[in-house]
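Journal club prep — side note

Before the paper discussion, L.F. wants everyone to see what a predicted structure for a comparable chain looks like in token form. Sequence:
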Amino acid sequence: MAVVRGCNLPDDLLYDVENNLWYRPEGDGTYTVGMTMIATGMAGQLVAFTAKKPGKTIGAGKSVATVESGKWVGPAKLGFEAEIVAVNDTLTGEPKLANSDPYGQGWMVKVKPTGDVGTLIKGTDVAGPYEAKMAADNFAGCA
């Protein structure tokens, strides 16, 4: 597992560094998607999570959900065009799960790509790009 500035980035996931999201290929053509530990560290404790509805197709770079913390409200943007096939209703009721278990129970949505998944980075190759992004964003790291 890569650890960058105290933030865990599991090797078995794919990453969209620009949007601070992780993707887990499920083997059936779908991907489970969530916020990285870096994203939740930057946002702080989540207080609300509102996803788009299953069946909706989201364009590349468009919001699949709105995430709110005490210091930030903003979109979770997909790295590629996909249809939402499932939403984590547990996260809707308990948004702090994204902070306490970002790579497990804190997942956001499951999506089915409608085309190419673009330039997702393997977990084994993500440390360098994340170090550069965290430096550019002036983010000291996960406590």
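L.F.'s comment for the group: The CA atoms of residues 6 and 106 lie 19 Å apart. Keep this in mind when we get to the figures.
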